[in-house]
Design goal:
Layout (H helix, E strand, L loop, with lengths): L13 E9 L3 E4 H12 L6 H4 L2 H4 L4 E4 L12 H26 L9 E5 L9 H4 L1 H4 L6 E5 L6 H15 L5 E8 L11 H9 L2 E10 L5 E10 L7 E5 L4 E5 L3 H19 L9 E4 L4 H10 L8 H10 L6 H12 L4 E8 L3 E9 L2
Parallel strand pairs: 4-5, 4-6, 11-12
Antiparallel strand pairs: 1-7, 2-3, 6-7, 8-13, 9-10, 12-13
Helix pairs in contact: 9-10, 11-12
């Protein structure tokens, strides 16, 4: 008689061992950016006056950039943008990764897998290879560079890194998400989309160390995504002779109000959860109007997403790292039993990660 199959042991969830953030030293005050935009676009773009109110509607007070303010006042091409990207990305990678490793009481040689998320520059070899010697990574470290996720990259990157950690319990996985959005500033694009980009984007990086088995009190419980059909034109890059060109072809706050809720409900259902099971939503704040739309879509009281508003005010929209800046603030305030990270990005995609926190 055949023996009954033994039940499989529950697989250990990946947990957040540490979380760190970093920004470059150059500070761009929103009022100064608006003044420079008037000088650069006002005379050439008749509709600029109508669009200039965007700067005050973002909720941004200041942002950080890899180059000094004056660098952005001149037109730049691919070689100059790429040089600035490689230099700035390497410095930020090392800074934020070393912070995360120090907090986890690890060194670079302890890292088994590195996941690098970035959509604002092209580097081949990728950034983690360029800094491997400085970081002390082993020669057998597994490298997973991820491009093209845009603003959803922080949540999706956390999902990818957690699954890699869960697949090899006890191994250390380092997630670094780094974006230099300021380098996409375009002088030749006389469009509303470009003005939105000028008013919104900043630079920053975040890093997370994950480990399954003995990682820590906050576990990545589950993750899911929703890709809407026929939405490729909502958000993304065009590749032009001068550099990346931002694509915003539909009003994102309106899309969020109309479509986000059923997508999140479906993702949660796949996790065998409901909206009522979520104690706190942690969202990527694309801008003040997007935060308002998120609160409406998720049936939250206006003002609930306080960390999101603070991050957008202090740092602007840094694309993929932004949600991890919000998570850092939420952790400092104390996470409830279950949180759901949500971020929207090119595709058009919603990416969600459920975190389970043991008090």
């Amino acid at each position: 008689m055949a023996k009954a199959a033994m039940p499989k042991a529950a697989m250990s969830k990946a947990a957040l061992v540490s979380l760190a953030t970093s920004v470059p030293p150059n500070v761009l005050l929103q009022k100064d950016v608006l003044a420079a935009a008037w000088d650069g676009f006002g005379a050439r773009f008749p509709e600029f006056e109508r669009f200039s109110s965007i700067f005050s509607n973002t909720g941004i007070i200041k942002r950080h950039a890899v180059r000094p303010f004056d660098w952005y006042l001149e037109p730049r091409g691919w070689p100059e943008r790429t040089e600035a990207f490689l230099e700035g990305a390497e410095v930020l990678f090392v800074d934020v990764a070393e912070k995360a490793l120090a907090s986890a009481h690890l060194s670079g040689s302890d890292i088994d897998t590195v996941v690098t998320v970035c959509s604002t520059g092209i580097a081949t070899p990728s950034v983690e290879a360029r800094v491997a010697r400085r970081m002390g990574f082993r020669s057998d470290v597994a490298r997973v560079p991820v491009f093209g996720l845009g603003c959803a990259g922080g949540a999706s990157g956390l999902s990818i890194a957690s699954r890699l950690a869960q697949a090899r319990p006890g191994s250390n996985v380092l997630l670094v998400t780094i974006e230099l959005c300021s380098l996409a500033l375009r002088h030749d694009e006389l469009t509303k989309a470009n003005i939105v980009a000028v008013s919104l984007f900043g630079d920053g990086a975040a890093a997370v160390v994950l480990r399954a088995g003995d990682g820590g009190a906050t576990e990545v419980e589950n993750a899911g995504e929703h890709l809407w059909p026929d939405t490729l034109g909502i958000m993304g890059w065009s590749v032009d002779p001068e550099g990346f060109g931002v694509i915003f072809r539909r009003t994102i706050p309106d899309f969020v109000r109309a479509h986000l809720n059923p997508a999140v409900v479906r993702i949660l259902a796949d996790m065998q959860l409901t909206m009522a099971d979520i104690d706190r939503f942690i969202c990527h704040p694309g801008g003040a109007k997007v935060v308002n739309a998120l609160e409406t879509a998720l049936a939250l009281d206006q003002g609930t997403l306080d960390c999101e508003r603070q991050v957008i005010a202090d740092y602007g929209n840094m694309s993929s790292p932004t949600i991890l800046f919000v998570l850092e603030q939420a952790v400092a305030k104390g996470l409830p039993a279950r949180s759901l990270l949500t971020a929207l990005g090119p595709g058009f995609t919603a990416s969600c990660v459920a975190l389970r926190h043991a008090a």
